[in-house]
Amino acid sequence: MAIYSKEDIITLLQEAGLRVTHHRTSVLSFLVKQRAPVTVYEMIDSLRKKEGIDQATVYRNLTSLQEAGLIKRSDFNHGHAHYEFETGRPSHQLVCNNCETIEKIDGISIDDTVKKMLKKSKKFKRTTTHSMEIYGLCKSCA
Ligand SMILES: [Zn+2]
Ligand SMILES: [Zn+2]
After folding, report:
1. How close is the Cα of 99 to the center of ligand 2, in Å?
2. pLDDT tens column, 56-76
3. Which of 1, 10, 88, 139 is paired with 123 by a 20 to 30 Å CA distance?
4. Positions of the chain with pLDDT lower than 70, given as ranges
5. What is the pLDDT of residue 89?
6. How close is the Cα of 142 to the center of ligand 2, in Å?
7. How many whole angstroms from 116 Cα to the centroid of ligand 2?
8. Strands 71-74 and 82-85
9. Using CA atoms, how far apart are residues 133 and 49, in angstroms rounded to an integer?
């Protein structure tokens, strides 16, 4: 995983056309450091304790970061939002149906499946990236 410095985060915000604020930089830095998507509650809790950022500010910044394409929001059938840094690279993850365990699995390829899908598709010409979630039960919940 790439390591992003504070300067890199600022550059990402500037390139996305967003105003660089202390809070926005903190929210994006938090997500860049995560190994898997985190719930919005976890984010609010951590950012409030560590940085003193209130809930409304976290939500507002999440919205602007998502609109700028820097972060990705997923529901995972949990009924609440999870956020992760948008790397633009394919991602494969296992999601527990019962708890918040979400594990990213690196080093596998589903390129053949993607090619087959494109071949079967009547409407699509090409693909750019993909995100795959496989649902199940983690070792503690099974
Ligand atoms: Zn969840
Ligand atoms: Zn679980």
Report:
1. 4
2. 999 999 999 999 999 999 999
3. 88
4. 1-2
5. 87
6. 7
7. 32
8. antiparallel
9. 31
